[in-house]
Amino acid sequence: MTGEVVLLLTIDADGHVTDAVATNDEKPAGVINILRANAISNIRLRTFAKPPTAPDQQTIVCGYEFDESSRAPNQIPKVTFDFPDRVHIGAIPRVIDPSRSTKR
Known about the structure:
Helix content: 10-25%
Order of helices and strands: EEHEEE
Number of helices: 1
Structural class: alpha+beta
Strand order of the largest sheet: 2-1-3-5-4
Number of domains: 1
Strand content: 35-45%
Number of strands: 5
């Protein structure tokens, strides 16, 4: 899955994310919902610089794309932070061969 999720964050006086809401609807509901859930859970793990006034709001774009640079099995996704307003997540596309399924 590829796409972008635009998040509106609320950041408290200590730099913690207290709320994160996706503000875009660019993909079919199923795809964007999966990307949204991932983006929100990921951004809640981050701590930002203490804002001058709190609570503060900030918009961040989380871009998801396939990273074709390596095909090594079990490679973890590459995450690149371009703060203050962008995060790129690159993952290796997985090929699923239904003919190798053990359930029929």
